[in-house]
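Input sequence (974 aa), recorded before submission:
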Amino acid sequence: MAAEEAEPVQEAVAEEGAEAGVEQLAEKLDLAQQVKLLTGATTWRTAPEPAIGLTAIAFSDGPAGIRGEQWDERLTSVLLPSPTALAASWQPALVGELGALLAAEARRKGVHTVLAPTLNLHRSPLGGRHFECFSEDPWLTGVIGAALVRGVQGAGVAATAKHFVANDSEADRLTVDVHVSERVLREVYLAPFEAAVEAGVWLVMSAYNRVNGATMSASPLLRDPLKAEWGFDGVVVSDWGAVRDTVGPATAALDLAMPGPAGPWGDALAAAVREGRVPQSTVDEKVRRLLLLARRVGALGAAPGGSVAVDGGAAGGAGAAGAAGLAGAAGAAGLAGAAGAAGLAGAAGAAGLAGAAGAAGLAGAAEAAGAMGATEATGRAATTAPDPADASVTDTARVDTARADAAQTETAQADTTQPDTAQADTAQTDGTHPDAAQANTTHPDAAQADAAVRALLRRAASAGTVLLRNTGVLPLDPGGVRTLAVIGRHAAAPRAQGGGSAEVFPDRVVTPLDGIRAALPATTRVVHAPGPALDAPPLSERRGRCPHPAPLDGTLARDPLTGEPGIRLRVLDAADRAVFSEHRLSGRILEPHLAPGAHTVELSARCTPRQAGEWTFGVAGFGRMTLTVDGVPLVDGDFPRETDDPTQVHVRPPRQQARITLDAGRVVTVVARRELAADTGRATILSAAPPPSDDTADLAAAVDAARRADAAVLLVGTTEESESEGRDRTGLDLPGRQDELVRAVLAAQPHTAVCVNAGGPVAMPWHAGAPALLLTWFPGGEGGHALADVLFGRTEPGGRLPTTWGTTLADVPVHATDPSPEGVLAYTEGLHIGHRAWLRATTPPAYWFGHGLGYTTWAYEALHTPDEAVPDGAELRVRVRVRNTGPRAGREVVQVYLARPGSAVDRPVRWLAGFAEVTAAPGETVTAAVPVPHRALRHWSSDAHGWRVEPGPFTVLAGRSAGDIRLEGRLTVR
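Predicted structure, token format:
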């Protein structure tokens, strides 16, 4: 046997042995024990079963970071670029490295299963969860998603392909009924999930919505094609709270209902089995699948050394992979020496308590200072985050040690500040202790691992940055710019991630302003002008409108008990006696500890206003709430829950707010209370905003700063109010007066680079006049350094658009997301979404799918296709010769599309069939070998219920985007 054949055979034998052992273990469980395993024991864990050596399986949201089992700002996470940014890299290998990093983070936090990747499509640019999905194209989405799956699972952590299927928008997402044809389902919306199954994904999550009348937790699609045709042997888990019936989901092949312990299964499922409404064999199959998952992630009979003992036999691999996941991530990411230090854990995690608080404080201070107009700094600011590209290992270790010390001090304070009769919750779940307690950042390997993680995140953010337009402004010469204007609110307070269930508390966020300052010599003068507020129209049009307050943090608030930066959280009983109390860093408390007798959540802080005027304070939650400032009531009422959407209930509940006039420098005490009621969640948020500044003056200051500088970098983007999970967008316009700001700055400074910080397409009516235009997406924790790398030419902007951008919403051919009054959303466009729809439209987009510039130029010289007719089912390669015609080395993404002239079936004008990246030095010629899978030549026959090929000629097209085709060839299929 050849060496390369041995490993797959050994894996297959181990898998067969594991399945046999799982079968034996399943037979030892009675019905009550079985159904207990099929519903979550908690929000994030399954039930253990000691009788067979089964421990709980822990879940956590992804995909931009691993939060763990608690929403707590002290438990920070490494923050990756958004999935849309990952897809924009068009680099599956890089995405695999990031998957390994996610796995290492999961192991650090005691998590077995990551709820990622999201494989839904960018059907409409209005989709509120656009940032969490990869692209508009089923092929690109499948390739990138499969790469993430392999990266995560290669380290023994399970990935979850979600949300199966057609969950492509947020409007009425819990109940909407998507009507879509069999062919369109197969070729477009199911295709990425099929790719994930082929990659070996261990879980698939069923969606909230219905498809063709059937709710997805009870859809026949779970059985066929998912399990029967595709051979998926993993677990089908419900989206959280999506199971609303007992028998339907059980017989339709759902395996695990989350969360728990309450729900429609449990005793009801056992009764349905006893009454013959659900076959016993159906339950047996679900249990076998769950136990196989447990075996894969090391939760079933884990033996010393990482082997997984299954009924007396050892099936190595899953447990070992889990234990070695850190080393795997380190290897994939080039992290020298990370494995020996419990990995990527230490420095990256422990940096959070000090680092995140510092970054948040800096952002908050910059935002609050908006009315002050332009501010300036010379050289490297004292608050600048360390630059991993410049830091030595020794310097990095010193920084990490300082962070760890600060974090440990904070943890000690949090554990000892229990006034009144409150007691700390000492029985924490495994894996949910504060990061500082887990970290060992003084270990040199941990310092190396942290630096390597930062470098990987930085490289990933650069790789996903798309240069849409450049008239020679970029790259900027760091030595040739004496004064640089950095303009916009997003410069100091960027959106590093999207909003909703996938949010994490990042260990740090490097702002664009800090990244730019760190990259420039000390002689360069950097001027920051925030410009107008993001949420406000001109003062003359406000008519009493309140600004959107942000959660209180240490930049404004102090704990009234200890005086530390932050707030005081108390949980009170019905008699207003404290049953729990602790210091917190932020007023955003999503999961306050519910000690016995908990009746009311109270958040309090002492605030020192920096500005006199009318301040806005708010409290968010449901039910009976009050808010006072120095005893003056601002909010007092009962605010019932009016939605079932879990994001709004548990992550971003509605805010009640009011205004009060305060004096600068006079300390006030702010107290918010929320009574806890059944079925309303427990998230409670205390927020504040300073008096609104004069937007006209702020705009003038920004323009003046741009005019006086040698060049300008202008950052604009979306807000959490305009782009977040739980609701679709109502338009593509940038919030506030940002379009006006862009036009004014472009008129004042011809050497301006505009950077768009958004998760999905936005309207840019000024784009054709921008000398340089960059798209940074939500770039993660190292976004500021990555942006500076691109701006100053240290790296090339590596991104290509994963979705087409229109000029205005009116031009977008497919954008409706609102269901009909009957609750139906019909996908009447069929196969034609994204660039496929634009190719049939009369108005071209602003920028095509696949578009992206670098810092060099390329000539497409030759295209070679097979000379002989290609048999159905054959894999083929298209060879494209390109030449670097520019002045510097660069990377090109060679894209191959197919077309079928005169086809007897409905087809897109052309569709993506494959891509490959090449790099070349100036003047160098290289050949890209682009694999084209046989599926790209096939179509789904709804009559035959199978894949078919239409014999005859296909046109092969190669180019730089869906709208920039450079070469054309032919091939024949027989």
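Checked by second reader. The chain has 24 helices and 39 strands.
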